[in-house]
Amino acid sequence: MRYHHLPSFTGADALRVAERDEPAPGPGQILVRMRAWSVNHRDLLIASGRYGRGMRANVVPLSDGAGEVVATGQGTTRWTTGDRVLSVFMPNWQSGPIDERSAAGALGGPVDGVLAEYVVFDEDAVVSAPAHLDMPEAATLPCAAVTAWHALVTHGGLAPGQQVLALGSGGVSVFAVQLAVAGGARVTVTSGDDRKLERLCGLGAADGVNYRRVPEWGRTIHGRSGGVDHVLEVGGAGTLRQSLAAVRTGGRVSVIGVLADGAGISVPHLLWKAVTVQGLSVGSRAVFEELNRAIVRHAIHPIVDRVFPFGEAAEAYRHLGTGKHFGKVVIVAD
Amino acid sequence: MRYHHLPSFTGADALRVAERDEPAPGPGQILVRMRAWSVNHRDLLIASGRYGRGMRANVVPLSDGAGEVVATGQGTTRWTTGDRVLSVFMPNWQSGPIDERSAAGALGGPVDGVLAEYVVFDEDAVVSAPAHLDMPEAATLPCAAVTAWHALVTHGGLAPGQQVLALGSGGVSVFAVQLAVAGGARVTVTSGDDRKLERLCGLGAADGVNYRRVPEWGRTIHGRSGGVDHVLEVGGAGTLRQSLAAVRTGGRVSVIGVLADGAGISVPHLLWKAVTVQGLSVGSRAVFEELNRAIVRHAIHPIVDRVFPFGEAAEAYRHLGTGKHFGKVVIVAD
Amino acid sequence: MRYHHLPSFTGADALRVAERDEPAPGPGQILVRMRAWSVNHRDLLIASGRYGRGMRANVVPLSDGAGEVVATGQGTTRWTTGDRVLSVFMPNWQSGPIDERSAAGALGGPVDGVLAEYVVFDEDAVVSAPAHLDMPEAATLPCAAVTAWHALVTHGGLAPGQQVLALGSGGVSVFAVQLAVAGGARVTVTSGDDRKLERLCGLGAADGVNYRRVPEWGRTIHGRSGGVDHVLEVGGAGTLRQSLAAVRTGGRVSVIGVLADGAGISVPHLLWKAVTVQGLSVGSRAVFEELNRAIVRHAIHPIVDRVFPFGEAAEAYRHLGTGKHFGKVVIVAD
Amino acid sequence: MRYHHLPSFTGADALRVAERDEPAPGPGQILVRMRAWSVNHRDLLIASGRYGRGMRANVVPLSDGAGEVVATGQGTTRWTTGDRVLSVFMPNWQSGPIDERSAAGALGGPVDGVLAEYVVFDEDAVVSAPAHLDMPEAATLPCAAVTAWHALVTHGGLAPGQQVLALGSGGVSVFAVQLAVAGGARVTVTSGDDRKLERLCGLGAADGVNYRRVPEWGRTIHGRSGGVDHVLEVGGAGTLRQSLAAVRTGGRVSVIGVLADGAGISVPHLLWKAVTVQGLSVGSRAVFEELNRAIVRHAIHPIVDRVFPFGEAAEAYRHLGTGKHFGKVVIVAD
């Protein structure tokens, strides 16, 4: 079978396809024939050696994948051949709060990821793919959608009438719009592109601000909303300062993007407004299952920006790197 | 001005209209010309002396009312003449958890209520009426809608995809359907009347069970839903037993109706399923304001079953007592 | 190796010792030589066929055990030979809220327990034994101490100055006294025996009530405390009624004992006082680890009432059944 | 009667004593003869015009005071003459989360404070002084002790065995040590002075690090503790960077001091460790009452560093400004 790996960390160009034997599932494991994958900004950082934690040469990249169970190991009880499953970002993080052991096991970083034609998983390291989604759609969920749900619902206590601010139109933000709307919240979005603002409003966002035309968008959004309850901060230079301006007294800023820089965290701001700033890394398997319940009940379809074949994974990386996407960039099996 | 009072506690017949001078607001107070009121099951119990706690003869009944500010006392800052306001069920309960002092101040029980043409309130004992509601609609909110929100959102952590079970078609349950749907939950309802089930589904409920045809409805609902996350238990003989059967492992039953009887609370059931059973009495002013934000954003219109004139308040009580209503029974100023 | 099993469910007499080969650990598993066990009231119910859920003939009894790792299976990373470990009550319940799958895997019930000389565990199905405890002490923790911690801390939010009521002097209640005192709470206890009340006060309880002399102890405790914040309800006829009388408005009753009967749950009581009644079954591995951290930091020694040799396990059951114990009844390897 | 005010904002020198008539309590109000006050770092910032929000010339300074009720207004029910009471930092913040209206009413800032011989309070704007404290001790609680409790208990979920890090030996940090020890936590402290470290250990801290000798104290504390659960960040240049190094994965940093600067908030740090950083401003009346319950039950005596007479309030400010204090700086009535 073929798989991608990273012999070096020089960016998308570093991706190499190689061949090895199809692995066999051990006791309590399953073998999955992968059908689709999605790329996250984190994968670009990993490929270019900017992801902070020690990367292992030749690591198999990507955390997000969807496929079908083709074999089950001894004593497996949760799955049967033909089941459609999705990878769990940190396979050891089953539920409850994160700990260091779980964090160290994130796929596609120090630990081998899923960009291979066949992958062996522990049986509790995958969840069911929602039935109404095709494989490319389903492959978008493990990182971006779980992150948005974890921030908005698990920690943010999303409630009808609440106000949510999502920044930009990347994967997490587009899911944030879809999920917050499903929960009855009023969503404000930002973008540097009016057509993207329009598309976000088409997904249910109630208000949009073009940050190119309104550099002090934090104050503007505070004025228009009276202060939002929750910001999903995915980052970019100086956005935290604006997010802290936009949030209401007693509100919450979830820092979920490695793009964010902390230069703008003003302590007096934190204090005056009694704001909670929380770092978040995706979420547990239990969180993923809660998300899926909502995805199914609301028949939400993830927004797939563009699809690339397995052999052109590097192109998928490059496309994501341009920042021109709206929603998720996906790779499919040839 | 005219007002109703209860010289005795013999039921709806005990209501008497009397006349007294219009009161004047003191410092920090407002005078409200009442325009509409709503009746809750609690008011029937109070009028018939079955409400448990010591009632005071000649108490002015009702907790729920809507009106306009017609005068403001010295130092008042929150309101101005012409503002449309709603009574807060326990005026001392501003936010946070309940305490005994707040509980002792519930309107229309030991403390005089609002069934009068003019009422003086402390300025923090009312909230704004949502602008899209007329006075009869707005008057339905203070007890039933606040209770449903407090149970579902404040304690229940309502989330998209969650499953909620509401019993019957009284005021609290109809609001529960509307609010749970606004929050993206899947709602199951029960009734003894198929036309009511149909109306509840028209409001967004996804499933309905006629408890006359399905006496073991708890088990049935568990089977169809896989166990609901949250039951709003408004009571009736033996319903708690069914509610505990319907709820999932780790789920929640909010006991919000004085009609409920506890005969059916089975301790092994509580233990096996690790269920939380929580008694709830309406909610604080802060909870009311959160509710209103959702009522406004979702343009929810309360369901008014029937409207009676001020002089026929006793008829409103009797109509509620028949149990034939769907939603709220309202009284309006002549 | 020798092990106990239950060919029938006629009580302690049903326990039989049998012989089988020492098991071998598979991948990700460990083999533990057991050194001590403890008996819980649940084990008496199981042995006598009163535990509700379908028991399997010849089940190996007991959930609580302590021992040393003597062999490790392939790929094991958490343990090494010689480590002292304790069983986790529900091995699948790693953290977060309970679910049905975890509940179905409780040891010594439908699933084989630990009353054997050697037991194989998945490597995440045990926790470290606190170093300052000997094996008999350590063996008391898995069910009773985890339950007390889960109720008091995880759900009860134990805080300095809070008031806790613990009923009787069984395993859970004695741990509740020790843990609540460590957390700075003021603890009231009940017993039918003044010497036991004295011993409980010796462990740090601030007040004790003899329920034989004060049948309406709920009202008495409410009067003396102003209403306790939290009751650990381990049961007995009619105790729930008294617990609801003792608790404050807005307080919490954790129902943790299968002995409890629900006859006394008065719905008006629940409502007037806005009480939360929560069923609890022990706790997850994460809860056990939190407990151990406190046990270690406060150098808490569990109270071992009496110790029986492995061959006389039935005597341990009978002694627990008399209700004369104070703290935990333990079995040790011959 | 005499009172202090701030005609200008040039520092401690700006304080002026003036004379005016004793005020009279209106309806629902009480008149308090003040006996003692305490000074917080915030008061220094206000006096020197560095407190950010618009100050009003001639404002009466200080939020913290203790005194006796000497007269009660019409309709007052909570207090009687002779009661010993303490000011609530934000009189409108009764319970629940903070809002902008409460934040705008903090004493001694935009709104007149309590550094006067007689002060009129709304009857719900004070709490009882713990009986075992003298007036100087009691006057230390309203800002520093409430802040420490709010951070540690209300938000931090203080539990036995938890690890807390408190920075320095100012008012908040010394209370944090006392309260965390009362709750059974293990406390680490920092100071630049070994004698202060010794005194903090005398109050129950388990470990201390001299930040002058160990500039990278965050890493050192992480190494010794395995990562603390909770940091009370009172500030100073670059301390946030160290605090983020000291905290465990999934831990919490409460930012409670205006001294803190945000330069050190590293977003990757927040993300890798999934840390929550929360700004906190003192706490509500309900939080103060919870604190007092613990202060009473544990017979905690606040640490009073030094006492100045009313006429030498400016000296008290200057002494606090030197940073040489340990615990609280107090002013007493002549």
Could you characterize the architecture of this molecule?
Four copies of one chain form a homotetramer. Chain A is α/β, with parallel strands linked by helices. Helices cover about 30% and strands about 30% of the residues of chain A. In chain A, strands 3, 4, 5, 6, 7, 14 and 15 form a seven-stranded mixed sheet that branches. In chain A, strand 14, helix 11 and strand 15 form a beta-alpha-beta unit. In chain A, helix 4 packs across helix 5, helix 4 packs across helix 10 and helix 7 runs parallel beside helix 8. Chain A starts with a strand and ends with a strand. The model of chain A has no long low-confidence stretch (mean pLDDT about 95). At the A-D interface, strand 12, helix 9 and strand 13 of A face strand 12, helix 9 and strand 13 of D. Strand 13 of chain B pairs antiparallel with strand 13 of chain C, so a sheet runs across the interface.
